[in-house]
Amino acid sequence: MKTVLPGGTLGILGGGQLGRMMALSARTLGFQVQALDPDPACPARWVVDQCYTADFGDARAAAQLARACEVVTLEIEKIPLSSLRAAAEHAPVRPSAAVLEIVQHRGRQKAWLAKHGFPLGPWREVNRAEELTTEVTALGGRCFVKSCEGGYDGRGQVVVKSPAEAPQAWRELGERAVVVEATLDLEAELSVLVARSPQGETAVYPPAFNHHEDRILAWSLLPGPVSAPVAAQAADIARAMAHALQVEGLLVVELFLLKDGTLLVNELAPRPHNSFHATEVACLTSQFEQAVRAVCNLPLGSVEVVRPAAIVNLLGDLWLNEGGPRFEQVLAMPGVRLHLYGKRDARKGRKMGHLSAVGTSPEEALARVKAAAQALGM
Question: Any known ligand binding at 110?
Fold first, then answer.
């Protein structure tokens, strides 16, 4: 089981904000870092030793990256399997193509979860237009329809309020395979992060409590205000899933907490996750340092929450206002920090950064970060 020590070189497939923050943590641990991304001005470019500009489907470029690195990881799950396999011929790829093959396709992902006994809400996979109306009817009429492949930050999914809206949803999602999910009676949306090393060591963070607006994460709180039994069950689900998938790296499990106390799995992400950005200020080990430790087969860090924290996402809408955001106001606020991703093209709905805040309680942290967001005009 190969261990990569500080001083070695880490490769990252993807150079967005998650790749950037992972690279910065790797730097702190003494690693060299290389990345690959189709955007020549991707956020990670400015903090790595080498950045290859290539499409994620360019298997030759993925192999070139891997030849220069001792281990390769990823910051986005849409890397084609052909590129992951090409890279794996030259360096360990963690998480593996086998994990991504399951996660990349919502239908396969849900079938795998069902096969392994993980709790799911009612769902169907639909591969033909004429089936969609039938399945929406069977699931109660009001449903979420999601593309099996692709989709991120709320894209690739449509809410249908009745079976009559199913044909339009099919066209809107590109007339290709979709997953249909029944509407649930939700109490909260949670996520739980588990790190697993190649030798099987695991570390699980407390659940985060998440709030979405327009299907994009607006704010997140760590630790989430949930009961001890719910937190323990969430951790058990994540740990069992990481072992069953044989994940090497991080796995985030998005969960639905129903009003009757039931926990159901929503989706999986085998990478750092927006809902755990608060770990940078809340925990002894951030999710980004933990990702580096896990994929390099180093001892995992403590997941202890030193102080509660919350984050609010900063979307490109702020930059489109006259004069842009006035950050000096929030930088003067006690307990608040600003995190910008180095993106140059601000557009509506694009994540440009986030605010974090700490407090003596989760509620105080959330109030502080919301006050900071309000000061920016959000």
Answer: no
Is 181 marked within a binding site? yes
| Domain containing residue 316 | 186-375
377 is in an annotated binding site: no
* Shared-domain flag, residues 277 and 169: no
Domain boundary among 182, 197, 231: 182
Phi and psi dihedrals of 218, rounded to 5? -95, -50
Q: Is 105 annotated as a binding residue?
A: no
115 among annotated binding-site residues: no
Average pLDDT on 212-227 reads: 94
Instruction: State the average pLDDT over residues 201-205.
Output: 98
Q: Is the pLDDT assigned to residue 121 strictly greater than 80?
A: yes
Answer yes or no: is 264 within a domain: yes
Answer yes or no: is 154 a known binding residue: yes
Sequence-distant (6+) residues with CB within 8 A of 348 are: 315, 316, 317, 320
Residue-wise pLDDT tens digits, 55-67: 999 999 999 999 9
Q: Indicate the DSSP class of residue 270.
A: S
According to the annotation, is 205 in a ligand binding site? no
pTM over 0.90, yes/no: yes
In a domain, 101, yes or no: no
Q: Is residue 108 part of a domain?
A: no
Structure tokens at 43: 């956020």
- Integer CA distances (angstroms), 197 to 80, 89, 371, in order: 23, 20, 38
Task: State the CATH number of the domain containing residue 369.
Answer: 3.30.470.20
Q: Are residues 266 and 301 in the same domain?
A: yes
258-293 per-position pLDDT tens digit: 999 999 999 999 999 999 999 999 999 999 999 999
212 appears as a binding residue in the annotation: yes
The reported pLDDT for the residue numbered 154 is: 63
Is 342 annotated among the ligand-binding residues? no
Residue 15 known to bind ligand: no
Sign of the C-alpha dihedral computed for residues 237, 241, 242 and 243 taken in this order: positive
- Is 364 annotated in a binding site? The answer is no
